[in-house]
Every structure is written in structure tokens, then in C-alpha cells.
Design brief:
With 337 residues, chain A is α/β, with parallel strands linked by helices. Helix content of chain A is 36%, strand content 18%. Chain A has a seven-stranded mixed sheet, sandwiched between helices. A five-stranded mixed sheet of chain A has the order 9-11-10-13-14, sandwiched between helices. By secondary structure, chain B is an alpha/beta fold. In chain B, the strands form four sheets. Chain B has an eight-stranded mixed sheet with strand order 9-10-12-11-13-14-17-18. The chains are: A alpha/beta (337), B alpha/beta (365).
Chain lengths: 337, 365
């Protein structure tokens, strides 16, 4: 029986295996080792939620602590990548990314293009996303749509431990800057993960469940919400196909379009803010390229256009639930012109 | 002297914990012979048919269609008409009160795969059964020990049955030191040595069939018989597009289409089967391993090695089994002088999956 580990362990194992394989791979970030100037308890922390715990003990000074200055250390990581290293840099919460937009959007994303393909920037920026952690508006956003918007960045959003390991290994081996989004509520999730190294190619969606009645595209934790909805729908005789794009840049358009060609109906579930998010993007894609296949209007399921609330009750209402996804799917299935 | 024979949910492969009752193939009151098809069951990997182990009348369908039940669960009862209904009721009550899902039956070992070192490389294998003859199952190109999921347990009822992962496959090391047929044959003999197996029977599918032949031809007297299922090395023709595609692609869509060629009934290719293949293909070293094998066994668009003429000199029983609708290697390659040849209709290249019950009946040692 294959071994089961959780999402956090899968991320850790991916980094450790790539560090063993390739000595240019380094780790940077806040509290990875144990705090600036720390001693005695070095390696005690492994980042804010302990994902990189144990790496310092194995790889010593290839694991570095950085000051609480995202603009500086993200810039440093991008510079190191441009000079031949493969940094895996952790920026605790994606919500803090705003202070280093120039480094990411205007430098890392543009080097290959503006230097005529002569420069590569093999940096991986790992960051936590997602609501449900009771962490308020500044620690709960998804924001992957912002990065998907920028040409030159690759955006990777795993939904399972198996995908997390294979996609992170691919991210580290990739020569372009990769933003690797980890939903903090998935960290404890377990699944079968091979002990051997493996890479999952970018732009290859995962068909999580097959069905002929409605296509549900979902990202990150919403993949699990969509699966729960699909199970409920199946009890009512509605068979949903659940697709996890896994990477939003590049996006596997074909798998989505082929599924919609079969089902004729689309629901997109996206935990991020509703305006200009991946749900809007994928809905537009299907409206443009599969209009003739559609039997009903496309439905999207996202929260309202407000910051993620701090109140437990409101936060729970904000996050798309299986019941909301099920309702949306039933509406498109039962739609009559 | 009338007995009640229960029909239960089978366990096809290590990972199967439950199965779905797809449809009944016999009705209550039907007189059925041993070997008649009773019910179609589906695991998350593949659908298959359960046959009656004993003849009689299908008296009860305990499970309903679409029920998802654990391995070992009671599906049906077969008994002669003279058995009283009250006895059937008592049997069901007794069975259900004793049945604990997840608890394997006595005949079935709970041990998982083991690893043995052969020539410095790890080989993963699964052993089932005790006593009887020793049998080694050798899978094909891109396959694994689970390729025998319908046969391994069945054959282990009366034999000691090993299935291994060839170098470059499954959970074995991915590095292949010598990708030639002789190189693989030496690994097989090394495996047999390492496990201190004396004499044994070899059963090989496809590429594993070619390895089976090559192993037997190394002149050892330890091989008692060879069974070649949809085997390579019996003719020149082979679907090289399939082989090269399997080695090269990591695309779900392409793999699904390729996997479809393996079966007469493409509906057998489930989401999980493709996913398992994808997961294997993504492992570091697998693509290089598969490509090195292809460079050794192909000569242009044909098989490099044809061993059929040497079979006459083997001096061992040779059994050949083929699916008539094999699209990878034509069934015409089965025509071998002196061999015990069986062509199974309605089955493709993965004949041991598509016609598992027939195969299991043919594999006596």
C-alpha cells in the first residue's frame, strides 16, 4: 500500500529531494531556520507553519533566514536566480506580496523576454493563500488571479499532497519564475504520495471525477468543496465532472473545453474575490470558445466583492460551500430557455 | 448433501477495498453451471465479471445493482432448489453477523509488497499463496505487478505465486543496467536466486513474455514451463506507435487514447487506470527506462528479436494465450508448432484483464 503523507510533508519532501539532487537549490524566508541570529533553537521553526522544518538540519547554510523585509529578500532571491541559483523563497502570506510587486511583476517576469531569451530566472516563490483560518482580511486572500494576469510568471495551485510534491518539483526544475500557492487549510490533508521524485507537468489539468451532466472547474481547496458537491449531486442523479486546472498559468484550456463539449454546462468555483478572478477568466474562455456547446449560461461561485471577514460566521458565509456549488450546478442543469 | 455457495466481493489488486455491483448477469431461479457469469463488479480501476465457483441455482441476490460493498461482502447465494429458504436465510444471517469489512479471509495473506536486491538494484514483488507449484508472473512494457490483479489471488489458491515489478517499472528501481532481453532474463534468474526459489513456472505478458522466453532459453533447468500471453518475440509486427507513445507522453489525453488500444472494450479504461499510468510515467527515470527498453527491443518499426524458432528446442511445455482482438501484437503470432495455443475471442492485448476468468482456468500447473 502506498505511503500516505500530508500536504505540508509533501512540500517539505519535494524541497528536500530537489536540494539533494541539485546543489544550486537553496531555501530562503522568514523563520525558516529559527529567527535572525538565533542559536540553540535554530531549525526549530521551519517557517511560520513549520513547512520547511528539518531542512536546515539536512542542508545547513543552504537554508537561510531573511529579515522581515519582503521587498528585499524577494528581490535577493530573484537576483540569485538570475545569477545561477534555484532559490525556493517563502513569503508567508500572499497578502503581503504587494510590497514586492516591482521585483516580481516588472523584474522576474520580464527578464527572459527583455533579454531576448538570454536570461532565465528559476525562482520559486512559495506563499500561503486562502480563507477559513480565522486570520482576517490581511491573511486570507487567494490573489492568484493577480499573478496569472502577468505574462512571464507561472502560477501553480496544488489541491492535494500528491500534486503539491510533483508540482513543486516541477516548479524548482522550471527555468521561469513560479509562484507556488499553498492553501493553508490543506496543510493537514493526507493522500498517497510516492517516495520517489516525480514531476507533474504544468498546463495539465487533473480530471478529479468524471461525469456527463455538468463540468465543475475548481481551484485549490475548492476542488474538495466541488467534490463534495458532486457527491451530493450524484445522489440526485446529476453526474458532475470535476476539473482541477492545477496551474492557472499556463492554463489547460483543452481539458476544460473538451469537458464542456461533452456536458454542455459549466460551473467555476473560485475562492478568490469575484471581480477579474479565475472564475471570470474561465467563464470568458468557455463563452468565447465553446459557446455552441453550452446548453445553459455559465455559473460562477465565489464570495461577494468584499474583504474576507474576520467574524467566524461571516467568514463561513463568504467561502463557497458545497451547498452553494450544488445549487449552482442544479440551476445550470435544470435551466430552461 | 446440498450445499450453499456464497458469491462474495472479490479483491482485485492490493488497493481494492470495495467494489460496485454493476449488473446481474444471472437472474434468481436461473440454473447455472460452475464458471457461468453471475455478476459484473467494478473497482475504482476496472470492471470484471464474477463467475460461479460451483453449479446450482442462483437462489438469492443479496446485493443490489449500484451497491458499493467492501471486499468479501456477500453478493449472492447459489444452492440447489431442494435447499430450504429458511436455510438460506440462516446462512445470510450467519454470514452478515461474522463479516467484518477490511478483514481478509484466511486464505489470503495480508502481507504487502516486499523488496529484494538483485544485482545491486531493488526489485519489488508480491508473494501470494503457499505450497503447490511456484509461479512467477512477469508483466509487460509499462506494466507492474498489479497488471495481474485478476489472476494473482486466484492462482495463489493452489500455488505459490510471485509477481514482480521489472527494473524501470512499478516500485522497483528505475535504473536499467542492461535493457536487452538477456539482461532482463538475468534479472529474473537473479530474482529467483535471491529468493531461493527452486524450480518454477514462468508466465509472461507481452514484453514479459519475451523475457520469459529469453529466461527459459538461458538453458536453465529450473524453468518447468513457460506461458506466453500476447507475447513479444514471436513475430516482427508490433504497434510501435503505441510503444513510443507510452514511453514519451505525459499527457492524460494521449495516455487515455493509448490505453484504449490495449483492450477490445475501451470502456474498461477507467479514470483511475489512466491516473495510475500517469503517476508511473511521471516518476524520475521512468521515461529514460522505457526508452532504453525500446531501443533494445525495436529495430526500426519492428521487433528486433524473434525467438519463435528456438521454442522447439526448449524441451519444456509451452502454453500460448492471445486475445483475438489484440491491436498491439497480432494474434497470428500465436501460431506456434508444438505449443498449447489458446485464442480468446472478445479480448484485446490485456487479455489477462479482459478475459481473466478464462485465463485463470487455462493457467494450471
Amino acid at each position: 500500500m502506498a505511503r500516505k503523507i500530508n500536504f505540508k510533508q509533501a512540500v517539505n519532501e519535494a524541497i528536500a529531494q530537489e536540494m539533494s539532487r541539485d546543489e544550486t537549490v537553496i531555501v530562503m524566508g522568514e523563520d525558516n531556520v529559527g529567527g535572525m541570529g538565533g542559536d540553540g533553537e535554530r531549525d526549530a521553526w521551519g517557517g511560520v507553519l513549520g513547512v520547511t522544518k528539518g531542512l536546515y538540519g539536512k542542508f545547513g547554510d543552504r537554508v537561510m533566514d531573511t529579515p522581515i523585509s519582503e521587498s528585499a529578500f524577494i528581490g535577493a532571491a530573484i537576483g540569485a536566480a538570475a545569477c545561477g541559483l534555484r532559490p525556493v523563497v517563502e513569503l508567508m502570506f500572499v497578502d503581503f506580496m504587494g510590497v514586492c510587486f516591482d521585483q516580481i511583476f516588472n523584474q522576474a517576469a520580464k527578464f527572459r523576454y527583455m533579454f531576448g531569451g538570454k536570461a532565465v530566472t528559476p525562482v520559486v516563490i512559495r506563499t500561503m493563500i486562502g480563507a477559513g483560518f480565522r486570520a482576517a482580511a490581511q491573511h486570507s486572500q487567494c490573489l492568484y488571479s493577480l499573478f496569472t494576469h502577468i505574462p512571464g510568471l507561472k502560477c501553480v495551485i496544488p489541491s492535494s499532497p500528491y500534486d503539491a510534491k510533483g508540482l513543486l518539483i516541477q516548479s524548482i526544475r522550471d527555468n521561469d519564475p513560479v509562484i507556488f500557492f499553498e492553501h493553508k487549510l490543506l496543510y493537514g490533508l493526507e493522500s498517497e504520495v510516492p517516495e520517489e521524485s516525480y514531476a507533474i507537468p504544468f498546463g495539465e489539468a487533473n480530471v478529479v471525477r468524471e461525469g456527463d451532466d455538468v463540468t465543475i472547474v475548481a481551484i485549490a481547496r475548492m476542488v474538495h468543496v466541488a467534490q463534495q458537491a458532486a457527491e451530493e449531486l450524484a445522489k440526485e442523479g446529476i453526474h458532475a465532472e470535476v476539473i482541477d486546472p492545477r496551474t492557472t498559468s499556463p492554463l489547460d484550456e483543452d481539458t476544460i473545453l473538451e469537458s464542456v463539449a461533452n456536458t454542455g454546462r459549466l460551473v467555476v468555483v473560485d475562492e478568490s474575490h469575484p471581480r477579474c478572478n479565475m472564475a471570470a477568466d474561465i467563464a470568458a474562455l468557455v463563452a468565447q470558445k465553446a459557446f455552441g456547446d453550452l446548453k445553459s449560461p455559465v455559473a460562477t461561485v465565489s464570495g461577494p466583492h468584499v474583504p474576507v471577514p474576520f467574524s467566524d460566521a461571516l467568514e463561513d458565509l463568504y467561502i463557497p460551500s458545497p451547498a452553494k456549488v450544488k445549487d449552482a450546478a442544479k440551476k445550470v442543469v435544470e435551466y430552461a430557455k | 448433501m446440498s450445499q450453499i455457495y456464497p458469491v462474495t466481493m472479490p479483491k482485485w489488486g492490493l488497493s481494492m477495498q470495495e467494489g460496485k455491483v454493476n449488473r446481474w448477469l444471472a437472474n434468481i431461479g436461473d440454473s447455472i453451471r460452475a464458471g457461468a457469469e453471475v455478476v459484473e463488479v467494478e473497482s475504482d480501476k476496472i470492471a470484471g465479471v464474477i463467475e460461479a465457483s460451483s453449479g446450482g441455482v442462483l437462489r438469492r441476490q443479496v446485493a443490489k445493482e449500484d451497491d458499493v460493498l467492501p471486499v468479501g461482502a456477500l453478493l449472492a447465494l447459489i444452492a440447489e432448489n431442494e435447499v430450504a429458504d429458511s436455510d438460506l436465510d440462516a446462512f445470510v444471517t450467519e454470514f452478515q453477523s461474522r463479516f467484518v469489512p477490511g478483514e481478509t479471509s484466511e486464505a489470503e495473506s495480508t502481507a504487502g509488497p516486499e523488496t529484494v536486491t538483485v544485482k545491486g538494484r531493488n526489485i519489488s514483488y508480491l508473494r501470494r499463496g503457499d505450497g503447490g507449484e511456484v509461479v512467477l508472473l512477469i508483466h509487460g512494457f509499462g506494466g507492474e505487478k498489479n497488471s495481474w490483479l485478476f489472476s494473482h489471488e486466484a492462482l495463489a489458491a493452489t500455488n505459490t505465486v510471485y509477481a514482480l515489478d521489472l527494473p524501470g517499472h512499478g516500485n522497483s528501481d528505475k535504473a536499467i543496467d542492461d535493457p536487452s532481453l538477456d539482461g532482463f532474463a538475468k534479472v529474473i534468474l537473479g530474482f529467483v536466486d535471491a529468493l531461493k526459489i527452486g524450480q518454477l513456472h514462468l508466465v509472461g505478458h507481452s514484453f514479459g513474455g519475451a523475457i520469459t522466453l529469453a529466461t527459459a532459453l538461458l538453458g536453465t533447468d529450473r524453468i518447468k514451463s513457460v506461458t506466453l500471453i500476447s507475447s513479444m518475440a514471436l513475430g516482427k509486427e508490433i504497434d510501435v506507435e503505441y510503444l513510443r507513445g507510452l514511453a514519451k507522453t505525459n499527457s492524460r489525453k494521449e495516455l487515455k487514447a493509448l490505453a484504449g488500444r490495449l483492450f477490445a472494450n475501451e470502456g474498461l479504461v477507467t479514470r483511475q487506470l489512466v491516473e495510475d499510468l500517469l503517476r508511473f510515467k511521471r516518476l524520475d527515470g521512468v521515461q529514460a527506462a522505457l526508452e532504453s527498453i525500446l531501443s533494445a527491443i525495436l529495430d526500426g518499426d519492428q521487433q528486433r528479436v524473434v525467438l519463435s524458432e528456438k521454442i522447439a528446442h526448449l524441451g519444456k511445455p509451452v502454453r500460448v494465450i492471445w486475445g483475438e482482438q489484440d491491436r498491439i501484437i497480432p494474434a497470428s503470432h500465436a501460431a506456434l508448432a508444438g505449443a498449447d495455443v489458446h485464442i480468446l475471442p472478445d479480448a484485446g492485448h490485456m487479455v489477462q484483464m479482459e478475459a481473466a476468468n478464462e485465463i485463470n482456468k487455462l493457467l494450471h500447473f
